[in-house]
DNA sequence: ATTATGGTTAGCCATATGCCTAAGTAACAA
DNA sequence: TTGTTACTTAGGCATATGGCTAACCATAAT
């Protein structure tokens, strides 16, 4: 179960910022240029570029440049990694009593 | 669709660190004391406490102190927030073509 | 009462993050 | 060819993050 996963680090980090989540929202509705992404954001363009880079590094956004326009598109399948991680933990959690033997040394029976 | 969600910020941030995800893993298997959490971690206890605080702030871990021992427990239901966020985006993405007309209308010059 | 244990607080340090402005570059447009 | 547009790069600044040590409680344990 890979917790030392650079990709997962980057993904969670990318999503930990409301501005970036907003950009993802925008891209859910279809591709957008850098300027279109920046337009509602009340911050300088280089700052938006920084956020975009974070989203691209984790694979959640892909972009291509044609002429002087860079068009960004969402790669929503990358979210599956997060879902898988969560499902694995839910599964672990659900089976935690199967492992009680490992900790049973000084426990007492309870009736709750 | 709440992206300006402090809780979501904190949750994603908490999960963006492999050490903290490791602590979550441990807690999936059952409650643990601070020392037990720290034991496999090769870092100083105060550092572990810091990570623990992050996990508690986002609601993913709850802890209580009895005597001098603090026992931590996972609150896996908090992960639902993340799943909901992902599902909402998948849904948006799935219906992105329904909004094509709306997009054309909104690309008219506006005064905001 | 004294010591050991488990956790906590305080404070320091290096790096990362998020923001900015200013100045570049590479298409288009006129 | 000259200017405008759409990014891009460089660099600077303030705060946050993740790590540490040292010292400090507050409970056990002896």
TrEMBL record, chains A, B:
Superkingdom of origin: Bacteria
The HTH arsR-type domain, residue ranges: 1-94
SMART domains linked: HTH_ARSR
InterPro entries, per the entry: ArsR-like_HTH, HTH_ArsR_DNA-bd_dom, WH-like_DNA-bd_sf, WH_DNA-bd_sf
Entries under CDD domains matching the protein: HTH_ARSR
Residues passing through the membrane, by range: none
Protein name: ArsR family transcriptional regulator
Lineage per the UniProt record: Bacteria, Pseudomonadati, Pseudomonadota, Alphaproteobacteria, Rhodospirillales
